[in-house]
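Record 1 of the preview.
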Amino acid sequence: MINPASGPGSTILPDSNWIREITKLNSYKNVHPIGYLTISYGKRPLDAVTEDISHYAQWASGDPGLIIQGIFVDEVPNIADEHNVDLVQSVEQATKKALESSNIGEISFA
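->
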């Protein structure tokens, strides 16, 4: 799991240490790096979550060695009220949209 700063970090690309190591990981056929992000049990703003998804999707645009092959969504709410259901569905839709425009492979919720 790739997690530079409780997600992809505040800049479009990770720092040079992360770039070096993600590129190294992607050189192995049996390793599938996935990005980490949290939705803080429904408390994190959707804009912040979609920005993280966008950052992960953009990593490979400058360097194919930075492809993230999935996204793991942590701290999913355990109460299915209207807000939480809408949030999770929106995160799923944003990730699917990012999948269409990048090489991210899958999304997992936990």
